[in-house]
Amino acid sequence: xxxxxxxxxxxxxxxxxxxxxxxxxxxxxxxxxxxxxxxxxxxxxxxxxxxxxxxxxxxxxxxxxxxxxxxxxxxxxxxxxxxxxxxxxxxxxxxxxxxxxxxxxxxxxxxxxxxxxxxxxxxxxxxxxxxxxxxxxxxxxxxxxxxxxxxxxxxxxxxxxxxxxxxxxxxxxxxxxxxxxxxxxxxxxxxxxxxxxxxxxxxxxxxxxxxxxxxxxxxxxxxxxxxxxxxxxxxxxxxxxxxxxxxxxxxxxxxxxxxxxxxxxxxxxxxxxxxxxxxxxxxxxxxxxxxxxxxxxxxxxxxxxxxxxxxxxxxxxxxxxxxxxxxxxxxxxxxxxxxxxxxxxxxxxxxxxxxxxxxxxxxxxxxxxxxxxxxxxxxxxxxxxxxxxxxxxxxxxxxxxxxxxxxxxxxxxxxxxxxxxxxxxxxxxxxxxxxxxxxxxxxxxxxxxxxxxxxxxxxxxxxxxxxxxxxxxxxxxxxxxxxxxxxxxxxxxxxxxxxxxxxxxxxxxxxxxxxxxxxxxxxxxxxxxxxxxxxxxxxxxxxxxxxxxxxxxxxxxxxxxxxxxxxxxxxxxxxxxxxxxxxxxxxxxxxxxxxxxxxxxxxxxxxxxxxxxxxxxxxxxxxxxxxxxxxxxxxxxxxxxxxxxxxxxxxxxxxxxxxxxxxxxxxxxxxxxxxxxxxxxxxxxxxxxxxxxxxxxxxxxxxxxxxxxxxxxxxxxxxx
Length: 720
What we know:
Layout: H1 3-36, H2 40-52, H3 60-88, H4 97-104, E1 126-129, E2 176-188, E3 195-200, E4 209-212, E5 216-223, E6 232-234, E7 260-266, E8 272-277, E9 289-295, H5 299-302, E10 309-318, H6 323-330, E11 344-347, E12 372-374, E13 380-387, E14 394-398, E15 403-408, E16 411-418, E17 421-423, E18 428-434, E19 442-449, E20 466-472, E21 520-530, E22 536-540, H7 553-564, H8 567-574, E23 582-585, E24 590-597, E25 603-607, E26 612-619, E27 637-638, E28 640-643, E29 647-654, E30 659-665, H9 668-672, E31 676-681, H10 683-687, H11 693-697
Parallel strand pairs: 2-5, 4-9, 10-13, 12-20, 21-24, 23-31
Antiparallel strand pairs: 1-2, 2-3, 5-7, 6-8, 8-9, 10-11, 13-18, 14-17, 14-19, 15-16, 15-18, 19-20, 21-22, 24-29, 25-28, 25-30, 26-27, 26-29, 30-31
């Protein structure tokens, strides 16, 4: 060791010893002084001399130390006095009449109900895990309670929750992703008007699910709501897990109030923009909707325009009344399919309503806001548009901007440019916007519901069909603008017909030709009929669907097939043919379905478990000669397409996905009125399935009918 280091340690040790000597000397001097002045007389005289400095036996240092001692003592006594006074406060006497009255008087403000706990932050809502070995059994699903936050943040989901991770690994090894959903009923005010809603983890809209193709999703649902419920994974193939599709009465019984269920499935052979929602009644319009994004290793390759940001924008019509109050009115006598008209619209769950315009409503818009999205200038940005409405078609634009459509319902397409998007219920489009317009730094994003398609027999005087958001040229971390944009609207009228965007110019990539010929052809007439007791109901051919919440069609068919080993016999035994129309297709076939609308309303048609080729859409009646001009080279493939009023649509599918799949109108009012049928494909494989026990147990619970559509029998005899 160096001499310098040794010297330093020695010097430090000497200093410590000197400090200890000083402390000992001071203690001894103080004790000696106090012992000399122990008697009153000596203390009095000594104290006087000490103050005057006349005592030769008391050093100056001793006087200073004693002065500090008595000063500290005095301050301590005063501190206790002040503390006691503060504790008593204005009530100087414990028997004071005013104080007793104050103690007995109840609080002027009623106790406030604690807001629901918000969900964990986005990155914590799912936890990636390494794939578990096949030999290890899965643990029994247990609903995970939402952790109690240290400070409530309210029900409004931050807009940044729908901004996708820019560092997402598209090539990651497939993994299992767990989500924990706690469903509850809460009174909230998205646009300022209070109403009951059904929320997941106490926030609205529901959480983003983000995964890769090949990942396994396990969504643990705890239903703490007052009604039974389910979750449907819109657009997912559910190949090999048909019982996880979430369709009430078809593939499962609902999750009863107080019950729980785990949806467990693997993403196979698809990627893109999807969403999930309840399939019980109209619960989707009450808040049970969320985005589901699937990434692919070929995502950047198939998206021909590279982009710097990627986000979800969900558009929905919005009702100030609970769907459970509106649905019985819609299904009642003499309504003639006049759907309830919404009050307004939301973008990602946000909008602002002027409370003075709805004086009969409980309203507080102080925390409501107009959505604003920061897009950095001179870059490309992907906007994944999802229409989660119960009924409304939207027309969407960004002032002074064109955009490229690059995806339709999970199908990548070559970029095709538009300045206005028409999107019907349940459809999805990806738009790529370039922020290079120099006329301003912020622009209106305008969305308009096509209200000409709404009922004019029962109009809603409170309807506001337009909703705006702000697109601002700023980095994501920058603060939002506080002044409205001055951008210019496009000088063109809104098309007042509910039908699809002309998608003939959209070219899917990679190219997938449709089979040149169909093995089977099926005609489906789509209509609303006024039957007994003047009830207007939706029909596919001669059948109006009524779900059996106590027994799923899938379970009945599997059980029947097990005893007959023959598809037709099992189907005849399993299905209620007056209310459960089933199109049975054996083997892998190419099937054409021509849907002819003999009703004035439009119907966005959704097929579960498949994407179909769109061979044609048009107005009027289908002309058989149209078959001669069909282009099967690379037609658009999607899962939801519009059947316009008094129009037709021809779709082609290849029945290679075994299951019992719903085909229905995605206007929620129409599907609840019966506009639904099913496709049974590869029934021999379906019949051989062994359904999970927890899936079967759902049908044994109590309260399954809560939240479902009312039975027609409640209207019998009432024709008023």
